[in-house]
Design brief:
Layout: E1 10-13, H1 24-27, H2 29-34, H3 40-56, H4 60-74, H5 79-93, H6 100-111, E2 115-123, H7 124-133, E3 138-147, E4 150-157, H8 162-175, E5 183-186, H9 192-196, E6 200-204, H10 208-216, E7 221-222, H11 244-266
Parallel strand pairs: 1-2, 1-5, 2-3, 5-6, 6-7
Antiparallel strand pairs: 3-4
Helix pairs in contact: 5-7, 6-11
Length: about 270
């Protein structure tokens, strides 16, 4: 019997330099240092890598070196400690870095009934809470192997390059997405497979190579340059610890406020 389930539409967003103005991993280097997970040399190395990332984007070899560096660095870390650090500092560190243009675009897709999916090479412990704060429907992120509550230093799934398309295809199969009608946004040439997998690709703050590809393929190019604090309109939490449930609740409020602003703009 033929399925009558309607095909759905999703908007797939890369995270770093597409939705937020910095590397999501770099953002948490300060609290990781304060909690003793990394040392000052690692912070300096991360700062330099982040500078190069902002300057010219990251090519395949750089991303592979970054993956090796990060997996070795986090071997032995306690997973619950990392999750707690992200929850406690998410509002302070990430909120001011979200591009207003990206938040409006996400809200616009939600108004149109589209699912929103954050697809990132960063770890799921970082990507998940950020995506929840943005009101995303799903996430696809790098997963590390965990043993006895600690990272082993091995990667279960590296959400990068063609692997992003693999994650998108899995979601399309489980959620009923028609990728030919879906949207994708990214800044990096390394996400060319991700952009090519959908019917509506858009380059956002593209690096030089992606800009060239976008022009040659007549893809839209967007420039996001206005990171603002989107949660500043809401009362600050009464505790310095932001539980995961509070993050999810705030995300619903944020999505509603953004949607309201867009709807008023269209009247």
């Amino acid at each position: 019997m033929t399925s009558t389930r309607p095909e759905r539409i999703a908007a797939f967003f890369d995270l770093d330099k597409t939705v937020i103005a910095k590397s999501s991993v770099f953002v948490f280097s300060r609290p990781f240092l304060a909690q003793g997970l990394i040392d000052r040399r690692t912070v300096l190395e991360s700062s330099y890598a982040h500078f190069l990332f902002l300057l010219s984007g990251a090519d395949h070899d750089q991303m592979e070196r970054m993956r090796e560096h990060l997996t070795k660095m986090c071997a032995g870390w306690d997973v619950s400690q990392v999750q707690a650090i992200v929850a406690e500092t998410l509002h302070e560190l990430v909120d001011p870095l979200i591009y207003a243009e990206a938040a409006d675009l996400i809200a616009d897709h939600k108004i149109r009934g589209h699912d929103v999916v954050i697809v990132s090479a960063s770890g799921e412990e970082i990507v998940g809470p950020i995506a929840a704060g943005l009101g995303a429907t799903h996430t696809a992120a790098t997963r590390m192997v965990v043993g006895n509550g600690k990272y082993t230093g091995e990667v279960e799934f590296y959400c990068y390059g063609p692997n992003k398309v693999e994650a998108m295809n899995r979601l399309a199969a489980s959620e009923g997405y028609d990728l030919s009608r879906c949207y994708a946004y990214s800044d990096s040439i390394t996400d060319l497979p991700m952009l090519s997998a959908v019917g509506h690709p858009t380059a956002v703050n593209p690096d030089r190579n992606l800009r060239r590809e976008a022009v040659s393929r007549s893809w839209p190019v967007l420039e996001f340059s206005n990171p603002v604090s989107l949660w500043a309109r809401f009362p600050a939490p009464s505790s310095t610890t932001v539980a995961a449930t509070a993050v999810v609740g705030a995300s619903a409020l944020l999505a509603g406020a953004l949607s309201y602003r867009l709807l008023r703009r269209r009247r």
